[in-house]
Amino acid sequence: RLALNDDLSIGRGGRSIYDYSGSSGSGAVILDDCNFHESVHLDGFDVDRTLSLVPPDGEFPVMNYRITQEFKPPFRINAWIEQAGPLKAEVILKIRAEYASSITANTILVQMPLPTYTTRVSFELEPGAVGQVTDFKESNKRLEWGLKKIVGGSEHTLRAKLTFSQESHGNITKEAGPVSMNFTIPMYNASRLQVKYLQIA
């Protein structure tokens, strides 16, 4: 037996056959849709948000869900690119972790496409930076910044000086970006969907 949030609603606006009377508040967790493993019994789900199941052998997903309501992203990323001369520019990337200091993200990779006429990139990390690597992928003109871990509440900055083979003629901001980021955050749940308790009989 497994219990989920009391304020959980399924369906847009929280209205569905599984609507719960306490779910109309602004803090409610609203799933657009979901489906359950065939071993899950939903007899008590519309009453107290509990699932009963006889699990099969091995690992399996109890529930798959989709959510589109607004949520606070775990990171805030700011990117600036400025001309530093006829054939030069500077990129500044700043990452701030918006989650609690008790949580740590790992295996972070930040990528940013650069203008096609970029020929060289020199990187400058913060003083004392540990577990960070930088690279310029010349074949596809992409900046890469890898961080081994990011603790919640911390900020990290990267500066990159670009050298061009031709003048940008003011198009530099149109030809760089967008910034993308891949990461893993164990024990972090942006949807706020929680397992309140698990009873094994």
From TrEMBL:
InterPro entries: Adaptor_comp_med_subunit (IPR050431), AP2_Mu_C_sf (IPR036168), Clathrin_mu (IPR001392), MHD (IPR028565). One of its GO terms (cellular component) is endomembrane system. The keyword Phosphoprotein does not apply. Its main location: membrane. It comes from the Eukaryota. The keyword Protein transport applies. GO terms for biological process: intracellular protein transport; vesicle-mediated transport. Pfam families: Adap_comp_sub (PF00928). This is Clathrin adaptor complex subunit. The lineage of its organism: Eukaryota, Viridiplantae, Streptophyta, Embryophyta, Tracheophyta. The gene is RG3.
